[in-house]
Amino acid sequence: MISVQDWAEIRHLHFAEGLSARAIASWLGLARATVSRALRAEAPPKYSRPPRPSGFDAYEPRVRALLAQFPTMPASVLAERVEWTGSASWFRKRVAVLRPEYLPKDPADRLQYRPGDQAQCDLWFPPTSIPLGTGQVGTPPVLVIVASYSRFLTARMLPSRTSEDLVAGMWSLLADQLGAVPRRLVWDNEAGIGRRNRLAQGVPEFTGALGTRVLQLKPFDPESKGIVERMNHYLETSFLPGRRFTSPVDFNAQLAQWLPVANQRRVRAIAARPAEQIKADRAAMLPLPPNAPAIGRRSRIRLGRDYYIRQAGNDYSVDPAAIGAMVEVLTDLDTVTVTADGQIVAAHQRAWAKNMTITDPAHVVTAATLRAAFQRPRPTVGDEELLRDLSVYDRAFGVEIEIDENTILDGEVA
């Protein structure tokens, strides 16, 4: 059997160069019968092996019967049910060929996106350890939002995946990086956003303030969020390699420098650059609201003698002068702020590590001053200040006492 290359050369010499079969056989060193067969063949030579009986053939009817009833039954269970004794890998290969005939078809449509209509949101957990402080390391989530029409990429690392931090992260990316509000924010079933068609606390207030809505996808629908899923992979392969990070703040700083470069790349699917397409996308989006929505974790507590409040797993000091008063605590992505009667009594940078105690030195000084004043002995009242004329009580109760020469007064001797 000759090779495909020889077959092509024989046909070229005969039909293009006009050589005879004998001349071609002499030129290529082949038998004339071989050259004649190559000239008669309309298709290139192809090796084919005639089918031979297989040990799987006797088991196939029973495997098909099980697959018809249980299409997703694992191959190991199928082998056990039909009492297969041969090679496990060979059995799996044959089952993989048969299984698609019994599985329901799940076609994936090619979606078309309109300018300003939607942005896809997801959490990416970078496969690297980020120093969080005090020797702790971790992998905080990165919120990724991609405008579906323009493929414009925005991202930021968040301290946690709680509802308050997710809402604050969405506002940060929409206001600071995207510059407009898509008409729909597409999420999967992230617990911090909502579950079972019920949005988490704080999310409806946020979307209502922006005039947008959150669309949570049904399970097993990756195509509807495929753009942001591919962006997660792009971040992992194009941003992460070769970088080292000293803290989450450093991670966000490097990410902010890289994103403009990433948005200048040419995307094959849209045959354009996201930095150019975002203009049309923004023009069709909703404008940012004139007043920023209420974001962050808010709480109201009474400050105790231990002048610390606990937020997101850490303790933060508060001005001891506010002990006993009701204080309002606001925790956003960057800071922890405490106010009392409209006055700021504490302001700290939010810690990314856990189980930490963050203390303002000024609060320690104030606590020492208040403690010394509390422990200072109070002045005693003199005995003369405790004496009072008893006639005061007589006049208070309207009692009149007549005094004559026979009346013995208190303290007098008869």
Automatic annotation (TrEMBL):
One of its GO terms (molecular function) is nucleic acid binding. Pfam families: Mu-transpos_C_2 (PF22483). It comes from the Bacteria. Residues 111-282 form the Integrase catalytic domain. GO terms for biological process: DNA integration. Gene3D superfamilies: Ribonuclease H-like superfamily/Ribonuclease H. InterPro entries: Integrase_cat-core, IstA-like_C, RNaseH-like_sf, RNaseH_sf. SUPFAM superfamilies: Ribonuclease H-like (SSF53098). NCBIfam families: transpos_IS21. PANTHER family: TRANSPOSASE RV3428C-RELATED. Belongs to the transposase IS21/IS408/IS1162 family. This is Transposase.
